[in-house]
Design a protein that fits this description.
elongated, six-stranded mixed β-barrel, RNA Polymerase Alpha Subunit, Chain A, domain 2, Ribosomal Protein L25, Chain P, 2 domains
Length: about 200
């Protein structure tokens, strides 16, 4: 993994709406840390620091160093509660990870070489059916993203979920339909070569 993230957290003793509101007025975001067969722990993190981290796609699918006092806990970001109308983070959930226990994480798909693909050069239109997938792996194997190489994809071709090339030690976490389309390369508009999800024209 090429990047690392450290998030500074402060212990918090009080839960509830009133306590959370007071924290937010001070520029802090209420958070909880759970998992690894330990009791949940209430903390808060800087709203501004968190916003800066969230600008990086890797932050959502990366092992994070959560510094609580003198301790550093390995965690992943599991949930974010955002304000429905304002650009504020209301609450975050961090999950502790252990070296020998698999975790489930949603990771993004990166579609590469689309403009160079055979089908696009012939005027084909790319349609992304999935932009992320849930994977299962040990923390050391957690990928920041999964690459989908479009170089050799031709008009009318579909890349199915079962055809994704996953890194060593990484598997699909859910019970997917192996024929679920990930990306479809339709024919040029108005060509009569539109492709449905079964690959038929």
């Amino acid at each position: 993994m090429s990047v690392s993230f450290e998030v500074v957290a402060l212990p918090r003793a009080h839960a509830g709406t009133g306590a959370s509101r007071r924290l937010r007025r001070l520029g802090q975001v209420p958070a909880i840390v759970y998992g690894a067969h330990e009791a949940p722990e209430m903390v808060s993190v800087s709203h501004n620091e968190l916003l800066k981290h969230l600008e990086h796609e890797a932050f959502y699918s990366h092992l994070l160093d959560l510094k609580i006092g003198e301790r550093v806990v390995k965690v992943v970001l599991k949930a974010i509660q955002r304000h429905p109308a304002k650009p504020f983070i209301q609450h975050v959930d961090f999950m502790r990870v252990t070296r020998d226990e698999k975790l489930r994480m949603v990771v993004p798909l990166h579609f590469v070489n689309e403009e160079r693909s055979k089908g696009v050069k012939m005027g084909g239109q790319v349609s992304h059916n999935l932009t992320e997938i849930e994977v299962s792996c040990l923390p050391k194997d957690l990928p920041e993203f999964i690459v989908v190489d479009m170089t050799d994809i031709e008009v009318g071709q579909i890349i199915h979920l079962s055809e994704l090339i996953l890194p060593d030690g990484v598997s699909l976490a859910h019970e997917p339909d192996p024929d679920e389309p990930v990306v479809i390369l339709h024919g040029p508009r108005g060509s009569g070569g539109e492709t449905d999800e079964d690959g038929e024209s």
